[in-house]
Design a protein that fits this description.
Blueprint lengths: L1 H18 L22 E4 L4 E11 L4 E10 L8 E4 L10 E4 L5 E10 L4 E10 L5 E6 L10 E5 L5 E10 L4 E11 L1
Antiparallel strand pairs: 1-6, 2-3, 2-9, 4-7, 5-10, 6-7, 8-11, 10-11
């Protein structure tokens, strides 16, 4: 009888150990007004003549996702009416990309949805341009984060405007590394 109780207890422990998911907190750090919750769509854009200047993210491995926060800064074209167009999706889930706005345009917004099946995000960017302004001294940044790194804090250096974004995906981490394309706007 004691052997039977012991076998039942062992079986109960084994079933519990294989069916109980580890705890994964859903709370969001209060450091920013995040533009999304875990695994949810988001969109963020700047007012006329402003561009994205801060790209902050927070990663949590058990969620397989990043929270996103963006800030805007006035460009030299602030106050002028921009012509803006949303890009197509820059990527399919799991794919790398590096895209720049064309025709002297800058990034003024981001739209994303989370693909549950692939545990990855698809991204669109809002490209805006103002007639009479052009981009010079452009360059690509190195990647700004490591896979699995909790925070990504990227601020565009003074005098530059974000004109492109690139990323590649790791299925192991269910995470992306990010880089940006910057130009001086005149």
């Amino acid at each position: 009888m004691a052997d039977m109780k012991l076998a039942f207890l062992f079986l109960l422990i084994m079933v519990t150990a294989t069916t109980v998911k580890p705890y994964c907190p859903s709370w969001r750090p209060s450091s920013y007004s995040w533009h999304n919750t875990w695994k949810q769509s988001f969109h963020a854009w700047c007012n006329g003549g402003s561009s994205l200047s801060h790209w902050y993210t927070y990663y949590r491995r058990c969620q397989g996702d990043r929270l996103h926060h963006f800030r805007c800064t006035r460009t030299p074209a602030y106050g002028h009416r921009p012509i803006c167009v949303w890009s197509n999706y820059l990527n399919s889930p799991g794919q790398s990309y590096f895209r720049r706005c064309t025709n002297n345009a800058y990034i003024a917004g981001v739209l994303s949805y989370y693909d549950q099946h692939k545990s990855d995000r698809r991204i669109k960017i809002l490209c805006c341009r103002v007639s009479g302004y052009y981009m010079t001294n452009c360059f690509a940044t190195p990647y700004q984060n490591l896979f699995g790194q909790s925070y990504l804090y990227y601020r565009v250096p003074p005098g530059y405007t974000m004109t492109g974004v690139g990323s590649y995906y790791s299925s192991y981490y269910r995470d992306r590394r990010w880089r940006f394309y910057l130009c001086r706007m005149h």
